[in-house]
Write a structure and sequence with these properties.
Helix content is about 55%, strand content about 0%. It is mostly helical. It is flat.
Length: about 90
C-alpha cells in the first residue's frame, strides 16, 4: 500500500458541523426559524435625535478634532525647532 492510498482512507465525514457557514449577507444565506424569532420587532420605532442634540454632537466632534489637530501641529513645530536649533547646529 502506498502513502497516497493511506492518506485518502484516513479522513471520514461524521456529519458534525464544526463552524456554521450560514452567514447573513453571503450568497446562499438561509434564515432559520431561530433567527426569525430573535429579529427585532418592526413595530418598535427607533428613537430619533433632536436637531439640538445633533448640533451638540457635531460641535463636540469638531472640538475634539480641533484639539487633536492642534496637538499634532504643536508636535510638528517642536520637532522642526529641535532639528533646526539642536540637531543641525
Amino acid at each position: 500500500m502506498t502513502r497516497r492510498q493511506k492518506r485518502e482512507n484516513d479522513w471520514e465525514d461524521d456529519g458534525r458541523t464544526i463552524v456554521n457557514m450560514n452567514v447573513e449577507g453571503m450568497p446562499g444565506y438561509i434564515r432559520t426559524f431561530d433567527e426569525q424569532a430573535s429579529a427585532p420587532d418592526p413595530a418598535h420605532k427607533r428613537e430619533m435625535v433632536s436637531p439640538h442634540e445633533t448640533r451638540m454632537i457635531i460641535l463636540a466632534s469638531m472640538k475634539w478634532a480641533f484639539l487633536y489637530s492642534m496637538g499634532i501641529s504643536l508636535l510638528i513645530v517642536l520637532f522642526i525647532l529641535f532639528c533646526v536649533k539642536v540637531w543641525l547646529v
